[in-house]
Protein backbone atom coordinates (compact mmCIF):
# COMPACT_ATOMS: atom_id res chain seq x y z
CA UNK A 1 0.00 0.00 0.00
CA UNK A 2 1.10 3.57 -0.39
CA UNK A 3 3.37 5.11 2.27
CA UNK A 4 0.78 7.49 3.64
CA UNK A 5 -2.73 8.25 2.50
CA UNK A 6 -3.24 11.69 1.01
CA UNK A 7 -5.02 14.32 3.08
CA UNK A 8 -5.30 17.08 0.48
CA UNK A 9 -8.99 16.81 -0.26
CA UNK A 10 -12.44 16.17 1.07
CA UNK A 11 -11.93 12.54 0.07
CA UNK A 12 -11.67 10.01 2.86
CA UNK A 13 -8.69 7.83 2.00
CA UNK A 14 -9.17 4.09 2.21
CA UNK A 15 -7.47 0.95 0.99
CA UNK A 16 -9.44 -1.68 -0.87
CA UNK A 17 -7.81 -4.98 -0.14
CA UNK A 18 -5.32 -6.68 -2.42
CA UNK A 19 -4.55 -5.15 -5.79
CA UNK A 20 -1.52 -4.92 -8.02
CA UNK A 21 -1.68 -1.16 -8.53
CA UNK A 22 -0.35 1.02 -5.74
CA UNK A 23 0.23 4.72 -5.33
CA UNK A 24 4.01 5.02 -5.21
CA UNK A 25 5.88 7.55 -3.15
CA UNK A 26 9.54 8.03 -2.53
CA UNK A 27 10.52 5.66 0.27
CA UNK A 28 12.76 8.23 1.97
CA UNK A 29 11.37 10.02 4.97
CA UNK A 30 10.77 13.73 4.63
CA UNK A 31 13.94 15.56 5.59
CA UNK A 32 13.97 17.71 8.68
CA UNK A 33 13.57 21.43 8.28
CA UNK A 34 17.03 22.73 7.47
CA UNK A 35 18.61 26.09 8.07
CA UNK A 36 15.44 27.78 6.98
CA UNK A 37 14.11 28.08 3.44
CA UNK A 38 13.18 31.70 3.28
CA UNK A 39 11.65 31.78 -0.20
CA UNK A 40 10.56 35.33 0.47
CA UNK A 41 9.31 35.72 -3.09
CA UNK A 42 7.30 32.48 -3.05
CA UNK A 43 4.00 33.25 -4.79
CA UNK A 44 1.58 31.69 -7.26
CA UNK A 45 4.17 31.39 -10.05
CA UNK A 46 6.72 29.68 -7.82
CA UNK A 47 4.09 27.34 -6.40
CA UNK A 48 2.91 26.42 -9.90
CA UNK A 49 6.48 25.75 -11.06
CA UNK A 50 7.26 23.39 -8.20
CA UNK A 51 3.84 21.75 -8.37
CA UNK A 52 4.33 20.91 -12.04
CA UNK A 53 7.73 19.37 -11.34
CA UNK A 54 6.38 17.31 -8.46
CA UNK A 55 3.30 16.16 -10.38
CA UNK A 56 5.43 15.25 -13.39
CA UNK A 57 7.51 13.11 -11.01
CA UNK A 58 4.36 11.42 -9.69
CA UNK A 59 3.08 10.83 -13.22
CA UNK A 60 6.34 9.07 -14.04
CA UNK A 61 6.21 6.86 -10.94
CA UNK A 62 2.57 5.76 -11.12
CA UNK A 63 0.38 3.93 -13.59
CA UNK A 64 -1.49 6.62 -15.52
CA UNK A 65 -4.58 5.59 -17.46
CA UNK A 66 -3.99 5.94 -21.20
CA UNK A 67 -6.19 7.84 -23.65
CA UNK A 68 -8.20 4.72 -24.56
CA UNK A 69 -8.55 3.48 -21.01
CA UNK A 70 -12.20 3.37 -19.81
CA UNK A 71 -11.28 5.51 -16.80
CA UNK A 72 -9.83 8.24 -19.03
CA UNK A 73 -12.78 8.06 -21.40
CA UNK A 74 -15.18 8.46 -18.49
CA UNK A 75 -13.28 11.38 -16.96
CA UNK A 76 -13.07 13.09 -20.35
CA UNK A 77 -16.80 12.71 -20.77
CA UNK A 78 -17.69 14.32 -17.47
CA UNK A 79 -14.89 16.86 -17.03
CA UNK A 80 -13.43 17.80 -20.41
CA UNK A 81 -15.50 20.99 -20.69
CA UNK A 82 -14.01 22.25 -17.43
CA UNK A 83 -10.39 22.43 -18.58
CA UNK A 84 -10.69 26.19 -18.22
CA UNK A 85 -12.68 26.84 -15.07
CA UNK A 86 -13.09 30.15 -13.31
CA UNK A 87 -9.87 31.55 -14.76
CA UNK A 88 -7.86 28.39 -14.09
CA UNK A 89 -6.21 26.25 -16.75
CA UNK A 90 -6.62 22.65 -15.59
CA UNK A 91 -5.09 19.39 -16.69
CA UNK A 92 -6.24 16.04 -15.37
CA UNK A 93 -5.29 12.37 -15.39
CA UNK A 94 -6.33 9.15 -13.70
CA UNK A 95 -3.95 7.17 -11.50
CA UNK A 96 -4.81 3.47 -11.60
CA UNK A 97 -4.30 2.80 -7.91
CA UNK A 98 -6.18 1.15 -5.06
CA UNK A 99 -6.46 4.21 -2.84
CA UNK A 100 -9.64 6.26 -2.85
CA UNK A 101 -8.65 9.86 -3.41
CA UNK A 102 -8.13 12.87 -5.66
CA UNK A 103 -5.99 15.97 -5.40
CA UNK A 104 -5.27 19.24 -7.15
CA UNK A 105 -2.10 21.32 -7.22
CA UNK A 106 -1.18 24.95 -7.72
CA UNK A 107 -0.27 24.43 -11.38
CA UNK A 108 -3.81 23.28 -12.20
CA UNK A 109 -3.01 19.57 -12.20
CA UNK A 110 -5.92 17.41 -11.07
CA UNK A 111 -5.32 13.73 -10.41
CA UNK A 112 -8.20 11.34 -9.77
CA UNK A 113 -7.63 7.82 -8.45
CA UNK A 114 -9.37 4.97 -10.25
CA UNK A 115 -10.60 3.45 -6.98
CA UNK A 116 -12.42 6.70 -6.22
CA UNK A 117 -14.05 6.58 -9.64
CA UNK A 118 -15.23 3.06 -8.86
CA UNK A 119 -17.07 4.32 -5.79
CA UNK A 120 -18.57 7.58 -7.06
CA UNK A 121 -21.17 8.51 -9.65
CA UNK A 122 -20.29 11.03 -12.35
CA UNK A 123 -21.89 13.91 -10.48
CA UNK A 124 -20.28 12.90 -7.19
CA UNK A 125 -16.91 12.96 -8.95
CA UNK A 126 -17.71 16.44 -10.23
CA UNK A 127 -18.49 17.50 -6.67
CA UNK A 128 -15.15 16.19 -5.46
CA UNK A 129 -13.22 17.76 -8.33
CA UNK A 130 -15.08 21.03 -7.79
CA UNK A 131 -13.94 20.96 -4.18
CA UNK A 132 -10.35 20.40 -5.32
CA UNK A 133 -10.57 23.31 -7.75
CA UNK A 134 -11.70 25.37 -4.78
CA UNK A 135 -8.44 24.65 -2.96
CA UNK A 136 -6.51 25.95 -5.97
CA UNK A 137 -8.76 28.97 -6.49
CA UNK A 138 -8.57 29.89 -2.80
CA UNK A 139 -4.75 29.64 -2.88
CA UNK A 140 -4.78 26.78 -0.37
CA UNK A 141 -2.68 24.72 -2.79
CA UNK A 142 -0.15 27.52 -3.09
CA UNK A 143 0.17 27.79 0.67
CA UNK A 144 0.48 24.01 1.02
CA UNK A 145 3.19 24.03 -1.64
CA UNK A 146 5.08 26.74 0.21
CA UNK A 147 4.88 24.74 3.43
CA UNK A 148 5.92 21.55 1.63
CA UNK A 149 8.86 23.34 0.05
CA UNK A 150 10.03 24.45 3.46
CA UNK A 151 9.67 20.94 4.88
CA UNK A 152 11.37 19.12 2.02
CA UNK A 153 15.03 18.15 2.37
CA UNK A 154 16.37 20.99 0.25
CA UNK A 155 17.86 23.28 2.85
CA UNK A 156 21.25 23.39 1.13
CA UNK A 157 19.80 24.79 -2.09
CA UNK A 158 20.77 28.31 -3.05
CA UNK A 159 17.17 29.31 -2.48
CA UNK A 160 17.70 28.95 1.25
CA UNK A 161 19.56 32.22 1.24
CA UNK A 162 18.49 33.94 -1.95
CA UNK A 163 14.74 33.54 -1.62
CA UNK A 164 14.58 32.12 -5.16
CA UNK A 165 12.88 28.82 -5.94
CA UNK A 166 15.23 26.44 -7.70
CA UNK A 167 14.62 23.42 -9.89
CA UNK A 168 14.76 20.30 -7.74
CA UNK A 169 16.77 17.13 -8.26
CA UNK A 170 14.98 13.82 -8.76
CA UNK A 171 15.62 12.89 -5.15
CA UNK A 172 14.29 16.23 -3.94
CA UNK A 173 11.22 15.85 -6.15
CA UNK A 174 10.47 12.56 -4.43
CA UNK A 175 10.70 14.28 -1.07
CA UNK A 176 8.59 17.13 -2.41
CA UNK A 177 5.90 14.74 -3.60
CA UNK A 178 5.79 13.18 -0.15
CA UNK A 179 5.60 16.60 1.48
CA UNK A 180 2.75 17.69 -0.79
CA UNK A 181 0.78 14.53 -0.14
CA UNK A 182 1.33 14.76 3.60
CA UNK A 183 0.00 18.31 3.68
CA UNK A 184 -3.42 18.86 5.19
CA UNK A 185 -5.81 21.79 5.03
CA UNK A 186 -7.47 23.47 7.97
CA UNK A 187 -11.13 22.94 8.74
CA UNK A 188 -11.82 26.48 7.53
CA UNK A 189 -10.05 25.82 4.23
CA UNK A 190 -11.96 22.58 3.78
CA UNK A 191 -15.27 24.32 4.47
CA UNK A 192 -14.45 27.10 2.01
CA UNK A 193 -13.53 24.51 -0.63
CA UNK A 194 -16.86 22.78 0.08
CA UNK A 195 -18.61 26.06 -0.65
CA UNK A 196 -16.70 26.44 -3.91
CA UNK A 197 -17.58 22.87 -4.91
CA UNK A 198 -21.24 23.47 -4.17
CA UNK A 199 -21.25 26.68 -6.19
CA UNK A 200 -19.42 24.87 -9.01
CA UNK A 201 -22.21 22.30 -9.22
CA UNK A 202 -24.89 24.95 -8.97
CA UNK A 203 -23.33 27.18 -11.63
CA UNK A 204 -23.18 24.35 -14.16
CA UNK A 205 -26.66 23.02 -13.35
CA UNK A 206 -25.38 19.79 -11.85
CA UNK A 207 -27.11 18.07 -8.95
CA UNK A 208 -25.80 19.85 -5.84
CA UNK A 209 -27.07 16.96 -3.74
CA UNK A 210 -24.32 14.86 -5.32
CA UNK A 211 -21.92 16.55 -2.91
CA UNK A 212 -24.02 15.43 0.04
CA UNK A 213 -24.19 11.86 -1.25
CA UNK A 214 -20.41 11.86 -1.80
CA UNK A 215 -19.88 12.89 1.81
CA UNK A 216 -22.22 10.14 2.98
CA UNK A 217 -20.23 7.57 1.02
CA UNK A 218 -17.04 8.85 2.62
CA UNK A 219 -18.65 8.61 6.02
CA UNK A 220 -19.57 4.99 5.31
CA UNK A 221 -16.00 4.25 4.25
CA UNK A 222 -14.84 5.53 7.62
CA UNK A 223 -16.98 3.10 9.57
CA UNK A 224 -16.28 -0.45 10.68
CA UNK A 225 -12.78 -1.81 11.01
CA UNK A 226 -11.21 1.24 9.40
CA UNK A 227 -12.96 3.74 11.63
CA UNK A 228 -10.23 4.63 14.10
CA UNK A 229 -7.56 4.93 11.41
CA UNK A 230 -9.82 7.01 9.21
CA UNK A 231 -10.81 9.32 12.02
CA UNK A 232 -7.16 9.94 12.83
CA UNK A 233 -6.32 10.72 9.20
CA UNK A 234 -9.33 13.02 8.85
CA UNK A 235 -8.77 14.86 12.12
CA UNK A 236 -8.18 18.16 10.31
CA UNK A 237 -11.37 17.79 8.27
CA UNK A 238 -14.92 18.72 9.26
CA UNK A 239 -17.10 15.67 9.96
CA UNK A 240 -18.36 14.14 6.70
CA UNK A 241 -21.87 13.70 8.06
CA UNK A 242 -22.02 17.32 9.18
CA UNK A 243 -20.74 18.43 5.79
CA UNK A 244 -23.47 16.44 4.06
CA UNK A 245 -26.05 18.12 6.31
CA UNK A 246 -24.65 21.53 5.47
CA UNK A 247 -24.97 20.81 1.75
CA UNK A 248 -28.54 19.61 2.21
CA UNK A 249 -29.36 22.77 4.19
CA UNK A 250 -27.98 25.01 1.43
CA UNK A 251 -29.72 23.01 -1.30
CA UNK A 252 -33.05 23.29 0.53
CA UNK A 253 -32.58 27.05 0.89
CA UNK A 254 -31.79 27.29 -2.84
CA UNK A 255 -34.76 25.10 -3.74
CA UNK A 256 -32.47 22.51 -5.30
CA UNK A 257 -33.35 19.42 -3.31
CA UNK A 258 -35.01 16.76 -5.41
CA UNK A 259 -38.74 16.43 -4.98
CA UNK A 260 -39.22 19.99 -3.77
Topology:
Elements: H1 44-60, H2 70-79, E1 84-85, E2 88-89, E3 91-95, E4 102-104, E5 109-113, H3 114-119, H4 122-137, H5 140-151, H6 159-162, H7 170-181, H8 187-203, H9 209-221, H10 227-233, H11 240-253
Parallel strand pairs: 3-5
Antiparallel strand pairs: 1-2, 4-5
Helix pairs in contact: 1-5, 1-7, 4-8, 4-9, 9-11
Global mean pLDDT? 77
Series of H and E elements: HHEEEEEHHHHHHHHH
% residues in beta strands = 5-15%
Low-confidence stretches: 1-21, 25-40, 155-163, 226-236
Report on the structure:
- By secondary structure, the protein is mainly α.
- Helices cover 49% and strands 7% of the residues.
- The chain has 11 helices and 5 strands, in the order ααβββββααααααααα.
- Helix 1 crosses helix 5 and helix 4 (122-137) packs across helix 9 (209-221).
- The longest helix is centred in the N-terminal third of the chain and has 17 residues, at 44-60.
- The radius of gyration is 18 Å and the shape is globular.
- The termini are far apart.
- The model is unreliable at 1-21, 25-40, 155-163 and 226-236 (pLDDT under 50).
Question: Can you tag this structure with a few keywords?
Answer:
two-stranded antiparallel sheet; 3-stranded mixed β-sheet; disordered N terminus; 11 helices; single chain; 260 residues; mainly alpha; 49% helix
Give the gist of this structure.
By secondary structure, the protein is mostly helical.
Amino acid sequence: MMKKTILTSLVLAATLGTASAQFKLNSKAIGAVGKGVKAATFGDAEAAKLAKEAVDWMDEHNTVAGPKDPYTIRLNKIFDKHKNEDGLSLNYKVYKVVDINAFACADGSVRVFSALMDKMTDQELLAIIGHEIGHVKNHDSRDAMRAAYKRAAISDAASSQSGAVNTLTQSQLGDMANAILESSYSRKQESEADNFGYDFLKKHNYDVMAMASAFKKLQALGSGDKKSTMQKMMSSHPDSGARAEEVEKKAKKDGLTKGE
